[in-house]
Design a protein that fits this description.
Layout (H helix, E strand, L loop, with lengths): L9 E6 L5 E6 L1 H38 L25 E7 L6 H12 L7 E5 L30 E7 L2 E6 L2 H7 L3
């Protein structure tokens, strides 16, 4: 049987703390362990670099594409013409006006002042500028104070409707009469 040749250890020059050259010998196994550790550290650095880059890019996309979501708000004080007569209250008012009208803020202020009264009935707002209500807005034509159902309604710039038990009780188009009805 032949014996394996054993490689001689390589001589490595190193300096000690005092700066004097010292000869050290390194075995093949020690060299392999060193090489393995360097390769392992290199792989770890590459993986961490890839992870970091991915994280930065992903976070940047999230920030750029982030959309704020706001909860929808339902305003129960606003109604469309089609629902004026079917509220679940026995007696209430509906003020119908075009919010783009120059006096719209004044009309709203009148209703707000009325609602501060302790015995005030519920008031719903109907905007004639809304697409659902636009076909009921008659700028030049006559209004229809004798309407029995929602499809027969026709309004001018300002109308106050008093609804009692699902039927039109009063239909007022004059501002002074509206103020008198609301006791303002």
């Amino acid at each position: 049987m032949a014996k394996k040749k054993v490689k001689l250890n390589d001589k490595v020059n190193t300096k000690n703390k005092k700066g004097i050259n010292i000869d050290k010998y390194e075995t093949d196994e020690a060299k392999e362990v060193k090489r393995f550790v360097f390769i392992l550290l290199g792989i770890i650095i590459v993986v961490l670099a890839c992870y970091g880059i991915t994280k930065v890019v992903k976070d940047k996309k999230t920030i750029d594409n982030e959309e704020t979501v706001t909860a929808g708000v339902i305003d129960y004080d606003k109604v469309s013409v089609g629902t004026i007569l079917n509220r679940n209250i026995n007696e209430y008012y509906v003020i119908v006006y075009n919010q783009k009208n120059e006096n719209a803020m004044y009309y709203s202020a009148i209703v707000t002042k009325y609602l501060k009264n302790d015995k005030a009935k519920k008031v719903f707002f109907c905007d004639l500028d809304n697409e659902l209500n636009a076909k009921f807005y008659s700028k030049d034509k006559e209004s229809n104070p004798k309407a029995k159902n929602a499809s027969e309604f026709s309004f001018k710039d300002l109308t106050l409707i008093k609804v009692k038990n699902g039927k039109v009780d009063k239909y007022i188009e004059d501002l002074d009469t509206i103020k008198a009805e609301l006791s303002i």
